[in-house]
Amino acid sequence: MDRTQLETIERLLMRERQKTLRSLGRFQEQSSRTRDSADADLSSYSFHMADQGTDAMEREKSFLFASKEGRYLYRVEEALRRLINNPAEFGICHSCKNPIPFERLEALPHARYCLDCKQKEEKAA
């Protein structure tokens, strides 16, 4: 992979990293807002059980989305580490050791496997 392609991939990874960090920040902000509003509600009326269930489901959904974003951030940062620490090896499939096409890396900059190896991995799972 030439220098301009590596720079393009680095820019894409940095953009994905920033986007994911912003998304995680929104989850954290939403979580703290929900917690603050629950603490501020000191009325003598208890919530209806259905309302409590809905709130619990929404919190769980937010947690799952944030967890997914966290895993994605890990993959993006791991790709950045590979790119910075060993640029000559970046873009090489971890399974078959063939080059990953630039088009695949452009679409999915943190890809570790070529399309064939990824399809084989998914079929095995």
Keywords:
Four Helix Bundle (Hemerythrin (Met), subunit A), 73% helix, mainly alpha, elongated, single chain, 4 helices
H-E order = HHHH
Structural class: mainly alpha
Rg on CA atoms, Å: 21 Å
Strand content: under 5%
CATH architecture designation: Up-down Bundle
- CATH superfamily placement: DksA, coiled-coil domain
- The portion of residues assigned to helices is over 70%
* Biggest β-sheet strands, sense, barrel: none
The total domain count is 1
| Quaternary assembly | single chain
Q: What's the shape?
A: elongated
Question: Which CATH C-level class is it?
Answer: Mainly Alpha
Catalogue the unreliable spans. none
**CATH T-level topology:** Four Helix Bundle (Hemerythrin (Met), subunit A)
Could you describe the 3D structure shown?
With 125 residues, this protein is mainly alpha-helical. It has helices spanning 3-40, 49-85, 102-107, 115-124. The protein has a single domain (3-42, 49-124), classed as Four Helix Bundle (Hemerythrin (Met), subunit A) (Up-down Bundle). The radius of gyration is 21 Å and the shape is elongated. The two termini are 31 Å apart. The relative contact order is 0.15. The mean pLDDT is 87.
